[in-house]
Amino acid sequence: MIETVGVVEACDSNKVLVRIEQKGCGRCHEEGGCGGNNLGNLLCKSPDSFWLKNPGGLAVGDAVTVALADGALYKTVIRSYLVPLLGLLIGAIVGMSMYEESGAIAGAILGLLVFWFGARSFGGSSFEPFIKR
After folding, report:
1. Exposed, middle or buried: residue 59 (CB in 10 Å: 0-12, 13-18, 19+)?
2. What is the side-by-side order of every strand in the sheet holding 15-20?
3. How far apart are CA 95 and CA 104, in angstroms?
4. In this predicted model, what pLDDT tens digit does every residue of 79-130 receive, in sequence order?
5. Which residues pair with residue 17 across a beta bridge?
6. End-to-end C-alpha distance for the chain, whole angstroms
7. With 0-12 CB in 10 A as exposed, 13-18 as middle and 19+ as buried, what is 100?
8. What ranges in 1-133 are assigned the alpha helix state H?
9. What pLDDT is attached to residue 98?
10. Could you tell me which residues are beta bridge partners of residue 49?
11. What is the pLDDT of residues 43-67, one digit of tens each?
12. Count of beta carbons in the 10 Å neighbourhood of residue 64
């Protein structure tokens, strides 16, 4: 499970706005660390804020642990990158078999869009970060 610490900035009836100062899990210098914190700091200097489901009993200023379920990061990468790429390839192959080069181009674009929108619609709560109690 990937975890990081955040601070509650605002509360709503069923959601809280949590500010995350650290990008990544912070295990950059440990064995098995991927360096995501270093890359996150390189690409984005400002802290990020996210609306998350409120587990109840939180107030502005509370420190919370934000977690992401095991495997959710890999599933999100597959859903976001590999599924649309597969659609692009399938669309290009089908289009090429029907209308040669122009069909391959049109099929690749159509396949990419269909698989991308399809991948977006099959999300789930298992991919979303949550506040760990």
Report:
1. exposed
2. 48-53, 15-20, 2-11, 63-68, 130-132
3. 4
4. 888 889 999 999 999 999 999 999 999 999 999 999 988 887 776 555 778 8
5. 10, 51
6. 14
7. exposed
8. 36-43, 72-77, 83-121
9. 93
10. 19
11. 555 568 888 888 888 889 888 888 8
12. 19
4-49 pLDDT per residue, tens: 888 899 988 889 999 887 655 555 666 666 655 555 555 555 568 8
Kindly calculate the radius of gyration of the chain based on its CA atoms and give it in whole angstroms: 20
Q: Rounded to whole angstroms, how far apart are CA atoms 46 and 121?
A: 30
Structure tokens that stand for 64 in this block: 């919370």
Q: CA–CA separation, 51 vs 27, rounded Å?
A: 24
Q: Which two tokens stand for residue 26?
A: 């912070």
Indicate the helix (H) or strand (E) that contains 9. Answer: strand 2-11
Residue type, 129: P
Question: In this structure, are residues 130 and 72 in contact, taking their beta carbons and an 8 Å threshold?
Answer: no
